[in-house]
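If I may wish for something, please sit down with the protein I am sending here and say whether tokens and residues agree:
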Amino acid sequence: MTVRVALVDDEPLIRSGLAAVIGAEPDLEVVGEAGDGSEVLDLVGRTSPDVVLMDVRMPRLDGIAATRALVRAGSAARVLVLTTFTNDDHVFEALAAGADGFLLKRSTPEEVLHGIRTVARGESLLFPDAVRELARRHVGAEAADHPGLARLTAREGDVLRLMAAGLSNAEIAAELVVGVETVRSHVAAVLAKTGTRDRTQAVVLAYRSGFVPT
């Protein structure tokens, strides 16, 4: 199955470089490009990508607002934001808005391809140390008394903490000595109880609320 990718960046050179790297892969296809976040809804509507690779900083409409617009529109596309610095507060805001992960612009081609395939599978692409550092500046936000977190069972809480540490379902299963299907059930319960739409949103909530210490 081919993963359809849309590129959104205000620098044509970056778009062309990414397109060359992605287009060389037999399981990936670049289906469209845009130079600003204001073009994202139209681009996604026309091309139906599985993954949107999006710059977090753009001149008219940034990646945060564009991601938020996609979520409001009910788009199924996964969003992977691009940033220059790991300590960019815009990254955390983009994750809170609905992005599924982030990559540095200095990432190797192999890292970019791995990131696209990871989020296309429905997993998050988070770097625990970087997210934890960003979260330190956002702890105590409106999520502090989120009732859903209090309803988690002890095992569900363990799963959420391991998710925040960047572990995949298979790695969580190995850590807790349970089956992968059991982990998937726990993850589903975490999302349902917290009202978050995916793993990334659950992890952002866990950090912002202080459920996972930073």
User: Anything to note?
Assistant: The longest helix spans residues 180-194. The longest strand covers residues 28-34.
